[in-house]
Amino acid sequence: MKRIIVGISGASGIIYGVRLVSELIRAGVEIHLIVTEAARRVGDLEIPGGIEEAEGMADAVYNDDDTAAPPASGTFRCDGMVVAPCSIKTLSGVANAYAEGLLVRAADCALKERRRLVLVVRETPLHEGHLRLMTRATQLGAIILPPVPGFYVRPRSIDDIVNHTVGKILGLFHMEHDLYPSWEGGMTRPPKRDRAQDV
To answer: How far from chain centre, in Å, is Cα 105?
Structure first.
């Protein structure tokens, strides 16, 4: 059984973390969930009850201020970690190894133990400081996965758009899913003809 740490930080897009927990449960993954206070506030605005729903599904739930919890140590065995959504503040903590709370400390452990760390950075537009933080986190070993929808799957609802990002996350952990169809190739348009050649 896979064991994955899921962090939900205080950016818009709490639904990504909640949906991820739901899909990981469906896949039989053991989930250790860390929720920040900012995430709770944003969750109350975006999807009331969503954070509580995710906590009810998780195998273990930790407060961000519990820096003595198991995920605070590199000896806590897991297959990796996902922060969804990942606020710029959280990204900055990861990129600068500033582990003020449990979520960033667990992410730092993932990096130092060379485990997969996926950051679903949710901010737009981006200034140079944001981009530098993403570059720095990538250099340390993190994977930046912004929630950018693939319209080739023809989403018809918010759920379809959310599922696309969650499916991308699952794919990074080599997990099968049915959240959207695999790309099988598409028709290419023939080159435009020069009308002069038809004369």
So the answer is: 17
